[in-house]
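Input record, target 12 of the design panel.
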C-alpha cells in the first residue's frame, strides 16, 4: 500500500501541472510566460510540501503526525468536493477570476493557489512523509526505495499526459479523472497512517541537525549547500523551459520534455 500511494501521489503531482497549464494557456494569450509562471508556482508548492513533511516528522509525535497530515489531506479533499459543485470539474474553473489582462502573473498565481494549492502541497509531502512512516513501521529496513518509486511515478505522469491523456479526454474530463484518483490517494494515505505505529518515540533534534554524507562517518552537509544544490537546477529548468517555449511553441509536449 505504501508503494501504491507514493507512486500514485507522484503521478498526480505531475499530471495536474499539465492539466492546469493547458486550461490556463488560452485564457492568457497562449504565451510561454503562462507555463513559466505555472512552473514557478508548482516548484514553490513542491517546496512547501517538503517543508510540511519535514516539520511534521521533526516536530510532532507519531500520533500527531498522523492527525496533522490526515487533516491536510481531508481539507484538500473537502475543497475539491466543494469546487465540484460550482466548477466544470473540481480542478478546472470555468473562467479566470478577475481581469487577466492587467496583472496576468498575479492572476495565474492566485488562480493556481485557489484551485489546487492545498491538494498539491498534500501530494508533494507524500514521498518523504511515507518514507518516515515506513521506517517506523519496519525498523532496520531502508525506506528509500520509495523515493525511486516516486520518481518512476513522476515520469509516468509526465510521459502519459501528452501521449495518452491529452489526446483522449477533454480538460473537464481530465479534471474529473484526476479528482477521482486523488480520492483514491486520500484513502490510501489514511490506510498508511493507521497502519503506522503511533507509540514510537520520535528522534531528538540532534538526529536532524544535518544530512549524513555517505562518503565518510561524522560528515554532514550544511543547509546552505543543500539549498544551493537544489536552487541551481531549478533556475536552469525555468530558463531552458522559457527559451524552448518561446522559440518553438507553448504546448504540453514541450512542457513534459
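The sequence produced for target 12 reads:
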Amino acid at each position: 500500500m505504501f508503494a501504491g500511494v507514493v507512486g500514485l501521489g507522484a503521478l498526480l503531482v505531475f499530471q495536474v501541472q499539465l492539466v492546469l497549464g493547458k486550461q490556463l494557456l488560452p485564457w492568457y494569450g497562449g504565451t510561454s510566460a503562462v507555463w513559466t509562471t505555472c512552473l514557478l508556482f508548482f516548484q514553490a508548492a513542491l517546496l512547501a510540501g517538503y517543508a510540511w513533511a519535514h516539520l511534521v516528522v521533526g516536530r510532532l509525535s507519531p500520533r500527531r503526525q498522523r492527525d496533522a497530515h490526515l487533516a491536510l489531506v481531508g481539507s484538500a479533499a473537502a475543497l475539491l468536493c466543494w469546487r465540484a459543485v460550482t466548477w466544470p470539474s473540481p480542478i478546472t474553473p470555468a473562467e479566470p477570476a478577475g481581469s487577466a489582462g492587467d496583472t496576468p502573473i498575479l492572476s495565474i498565481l492566485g488562480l493556481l493557489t485557489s484551485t489546487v494549492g492545498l491538494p498539491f502541497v498534500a501530494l508533494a509531502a507524500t514521498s518523504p512523509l511515507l518514507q518516515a512512516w515506513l521506517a517506523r513501521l519496519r525498523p532496520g529496513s531502508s525506506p528509500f526505495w520509495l523515493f525511486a518509486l516516486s520518481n518512476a511515478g513522476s515520469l509516468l505522469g509526465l510521459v502519459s499526459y501528452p501521449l495518452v491523456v491529452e489526446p483522449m479526454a477533454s480538460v473537464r474530463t481530465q479534471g474529473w479523472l484526476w479528482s477521482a484518483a486523488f480520492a483514491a490517494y486520500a484513502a490510501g494515505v489514511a490506510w498508511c497512517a493507521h497502519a503506522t505505529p503511533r507509540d514510537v518515540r520520535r528522534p531528538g533534534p540532534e538526529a536532524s541537525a544535518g544530512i549524513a554524507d555517505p562518503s565518510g562517518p561524522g560528515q554532514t552537509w550544511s543547509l546552505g549547500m543543500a539549498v544551493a544544490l537544489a536552487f541551481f537546477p531549478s533556475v536552469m529548468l525555468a530558463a531552458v523551459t522559457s527559451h524552448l517555449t518561446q522559440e518553438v511553441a507553448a504546448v504540453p509536449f514541450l512542457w513534459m520534455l
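The CA atoms of residues 241 and 255 lie 7 Å apart.
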